[in-house]
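Appendix C: a fully annotated inverse folding record. The material below is reproduced so that readers can follow the format used throughout the book. The structure is listed first as tokens, followed by the designed sequence.
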């Protein structure tokens, strides 16, 4: 393509872009970027006419030529402009439909490779702040995770990474993609995802064959024809990092694979399908909630519902369900597709044998490997997620921290192991020592743990605190219950226990839970204990009476609490 031809085609291309933008103003295409790509195709790739676009031209343009010529241009702008350039070539009948489809496919692969090479710095600039995005506190409860060498060993066993690595190796060895897929055991349906993953992770890169041959001593003549410009695969920097790198390298590659699947795999499906109805950007926002419930898991149907809401957020309500159903019918439920890929990576486990009727069906849980990876990202975003030591090295305070602040289901794993490691009597003693110096919520947590995991075995520990002021009434009540007897506590002592127990459950609980606790301790119609509760010498008396007045559904009890509250406030001087 001589300079005059380029200028004439550029004028035609600019007019085409202007018409395109007039019809679809929401698209942002820079005509200068498109005409620059046109000129570079002529000057650097030897494409004399757009009708001569061949295999490898899109890859070379996007991965080598354009970045070298215009390094400051936004890669997204370049991809969008080249995409439109191909549409222009098709609409002006320079290429036919089959060639158009082939070149768009090559552009998709080149785009994946481009952003794979830019991934770490690029994502570092644009990664969301997980703490802000999910309104997380400065600190989450402690978790237990395997040691780094165990995590790395698990990462080395990833079936999906094994296939991506084998595919890259076969391609580098000179096999074409179908043959490489057969060698690597990659099915036709998963080939696009596995190939993109191999490129994105840096298992394979693409170099100019001419540059490669210039460094060789083969003695072959340089004919300077188009075959010298074919882009060929070479080993990428991560090919030796997984599975044979050190533990840190292996975990880094695995973490990149997790982020890639979450951020790009469904969007890439939509690009290949040419269907932009659903917006898969940000559709993996359920992954952090899955971490917060990683011991318990989430039903796949709930994840699917969340993804449906996220991907159809910009659609009219009447179109949203139709669009989701249509996509799922043709391509599969996106949640199931993505979770299947994550399971192959080793990031989730799918349990079909869940008997809880509230979560019937398949349940997805994070693996420890995925939990460790996401914990690292949370820590980087400013959320402290402490790691628990071995059960025998945990303190009573550690266990209480798990109960009070731990992720869903964490206490059910940690408490049995901790009590087993310390023995029920010594465990109860350690917990009561903490409770003796704590407030009402701390005492409530300790009593809950001892009742659930030590039971009658804790009797010696309860006897030892009969003279401890903060615990003696609780000890007398627990010992009476263990003997199957009624307690000998006076009404005044029972009132103190009622205040202490309710106070222990006011912090950090939903309104429904607080109501249930209050009505369990103060039954409907029991105005007598409330009438005299203002006399209880407890630092939380005013707070508890306020809560009873606000939460108790029995009107006489609530009224009695509000009346007693005025007396308690006067007594406290407030």
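Designed amino acids, in order:
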């Amino acid at each position: 393509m001589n300079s005059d031809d380029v200028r004439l085609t550029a004028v035609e291309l600019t007019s085409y872009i202007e018409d395109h933008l007039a019809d679809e103003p929401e698209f942002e295409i820079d005509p200068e970027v498109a005409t620059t790509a046109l000129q570079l195709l002529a000057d650097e790739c030897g494409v004399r006419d757009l009708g001569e676009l061949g295999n490898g031209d899109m890859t070379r343009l996007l991965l080598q030529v354009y970045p070298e010529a215009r390094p400051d241009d936004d890669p997204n702008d370049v991809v969008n402009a080249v995409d439109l350039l191909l549409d222009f070539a098709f609409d002006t009948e320079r290429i036919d439909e089959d060639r158009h489809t082939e070149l768009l496919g090559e552009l998709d692969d080149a785009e994946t490779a481009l952003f794979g090479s830019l991934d770490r710095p690029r994502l570092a600039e644009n990664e969301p702040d997980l703490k802000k995005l999910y309104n997380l506190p400065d600190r989450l409860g402690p978790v237990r995770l395997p040691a780094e060498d165990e995590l790395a060993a698990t990462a080395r066993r990833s079936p999906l990474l094994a296939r991506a690595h084998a595919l890259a190796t076969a391609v580098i060895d000179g096999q074409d993609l179908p043959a490489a897929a057969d060698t690597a055991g990659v099915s036709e349906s998963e080939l696009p995802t596995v190939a993109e993953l191999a490129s994105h992770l840096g298992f394979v890169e693409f170099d100019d064959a001419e540059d490669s041959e210039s460094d060789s001593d083969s003695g072959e003549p340089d004919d300077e024809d188009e075959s010298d410009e074919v882009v060929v695969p070479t080993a990428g920097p991560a090919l030796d990092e997984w599975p044979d790198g050190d533990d840190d390298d292996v975990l880094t590659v695995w973490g990149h694979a997790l982020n890639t699947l979450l951020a790009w795999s469904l969007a890439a499906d939509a690009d290949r399908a040419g269907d932009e109805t659903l917006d898969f950007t940000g559709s993996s926002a359920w992954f952090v909630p899955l971490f917060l419930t990683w011991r318990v898991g989430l039903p796949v149907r709930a994840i699917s519902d969340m993804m449906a809401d996220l991907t159809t957020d910009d659609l009219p309500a009447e179109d949203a369900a139709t669009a989701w159903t249509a996509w799922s019918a043709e391509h599969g439920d996106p949640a199931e597709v993505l979770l299947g890929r994550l399971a192959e990576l080793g990031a989730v486990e799918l349990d079909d044998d869940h008997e809880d009727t509230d979560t019937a069906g398949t349940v997805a849980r994070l693996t420890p490997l995925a939990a460790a990876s996401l914990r690292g990202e949370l820590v980087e975003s400013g959320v402290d997620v402490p790691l628990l030591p071995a059960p025998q090295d945990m303190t009573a305070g550690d266990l209480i921290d798990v109960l009070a602040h731990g992720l869903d289901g964490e206490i059910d794993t940690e408490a049995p192991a901790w009590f087993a490691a310390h023995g029920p009597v010594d465990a109860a003693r350690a917990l009561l020592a903490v409770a003796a110096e704590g407030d009402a919520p701390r005492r409530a947590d300790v009593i809950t743990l001892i009742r659930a995991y030590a039971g009658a075995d804790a009797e010696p520990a309860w006897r030892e605190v009969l003279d401890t002021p903060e615990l003696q009434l609780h000890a007398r009540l627990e010992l009476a219950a263990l003997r199957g007897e009624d307690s000998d506590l006076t009404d005044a002592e029972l009132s103190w226990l009622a205040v202490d127990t309710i106070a222990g459950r006011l912090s950090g609980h939903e309104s429904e839970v607080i109501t249930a606790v209050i009505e369990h301790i103060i039954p409907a119609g029991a105005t007598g204990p409330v009438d005299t509760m203002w006399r209880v010498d407890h630092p939380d008396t005013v707070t508890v009476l306020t809560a009873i007045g606000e939460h108790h559904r029995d009107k006489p009890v609530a009224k009695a609490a509000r009346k007693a509250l005025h007396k308690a406030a006067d007594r406290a001087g407030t």
